[in-house]
Task: structure prediction
Amino acid sequence: MIVFEGVAQRDEWRELPGSVREAVTDGLGAPVVSAINQRGGFSHGMAAVLTCADGNAVFAKAVRADDGLAGPYRAEAAAARGLAGLVPTPAVLFTIERDGWFVVVFEFVTGHHPHLDQPRELNAVLELLDRMATALTPSPLPAMPTVSEVYGPKLRCWTALAEQSTPAENLDAWTLRNLDRLAALEHRWLEWADGETLLHTDLRPDNLLVTADGSVMVVDWAWPCRGAAWLDLGFLAPAIAASGIDPDPILATQPSTADLDRVAMDSFVCALAGYWTVQSRLPVPPRSPNLRAYQKRAAATSLSWFRSRMQWS
Result:
């Protein structure tokens, strides 16, 4: 893991109860002498690189046990443990439940987030996705929910806008003109969603690390689901487009998408664009002040790519 600039106003290591910090220290076997708090990401839970008196470093995440983020943090820890030896992801060293807090401690991995406009790094990311599709089919975590169960209800935002009694404010003329078509298309990806691959479902550059040998690790398994392997590339594709790279030639050659019905990806990108559009219009979370701006950019990128695929007037 690495420290990167981001948008969250996170809890800090020094703000954790003394009993929790003491339990972490006991697990590490040496006193913590330095804590570099991470500001990246979009959640408010603690995330910090802890350096011990013996020189060892770890990456720790912590959240109050009754916080809404506790579920994803536990899911991330469980997924990372289940993936050991299957795909490159930082190992879980231990977890702690103490005095109303949940803590997960990972091995520390140095690296940088991939630049998707750099062919070598993009290719390394795509190679990782191929490896994940193979190694994680069938899912090593069969109890995880399906992608249809988790994302089917969420990715219906154009439909929600179309069902409003009055047109939504701040939608551009193209979107208003095509709103019924968007609503009709956004659910169709579910026809191709079934599968037994374990999916990450939150792939973007800040959840990937390029290590010293040029290979890529995937981190932050907070939303694991079971489904068709092509979906993880679908989640990543808008970030590829945002880097200035046309994702369509990539989709045409990647094993998970080369033979995929075009309507499946059209529908999925449509649904993502609708989700980001609606999310970006919500009130700003006080501890993630730049989240809506990020979502607005994601909506614009996804919708621009979708429009280039569809050529609707």
Observations:
- The longest strand covers residues 57-64.
- DSSP finds ten helices and nine strands in the chain.
